[in-house]
Amino acid sequence: MTLVYMIRQVLAHPLDYFQDIQQPNRLKWSYGFLLVFIAFLARMGSLLLLGYHYETREAYEISYAYEFVWILVPWLTWSAANWSVSTILEGEGKFKEILVGSAFCLVPYIVLIIPVTLLTNVLSLSEGNLYSLMTTLIFGWVALLLLIKLKVLHDFELGKLVFITLLTLLAMAVIWFIGILLYGLLSQFLSFFFDVFKEIRFRL
């Protein structure tokens, strides 16, 4: 299946799509990373095209690296956490299906966020509730696709689906906590190392 066909299928027939991707050789790793990169481009486009009266940041305050990390990291940690939890609890989904399938759940955001953002250039500030509602619906659609993906790939009942979702979110929080902790320790170690190096050079 081509990427464009799969995008259309996940929007129109998500249940069929997530069943189809379990067939051998239906998914490519590159599709997942490509969609995440396109989601990043859509995010940057939405920030740059936002109506001036809706802007909360100046252009120079927007960090491309920061925005990319906040798309890439949740995607990777969600996939890793869900695969780990579901494997322990007898889930049927493979890591490739979870990772790439999660990227396809971003398709509603990719397709709709820029058209919705363009509306802020014609909406007044008092009509901001409409913009907020539409963006909330987009993120709700993404969340719904993630739940459908879990249901189909792992073949869970509703109760177990909710339980697995909560455990996945908890596992993500643990991964982020450990990552932040290691980052802090590494930063302190490097700072100490460079301070010692500067002191040695100064004394020599």
Automatic annotation (TrEMBL):
It is found in: Membrane. Its main location: membrane. GO terms for cellular component: membrane. InterPro entries: Yip1_dom. Residues 9-177 form the Yip1 domain. Pfam families: Yip1. The chain crosses the membrane at residues 31-52, 64-86, 98-118, 130-150, 162-186. Keywords: Membrane, Transmembrane, Transmembrane helix. It is a multi-pass membrane protein. This is YIP1 family protein.
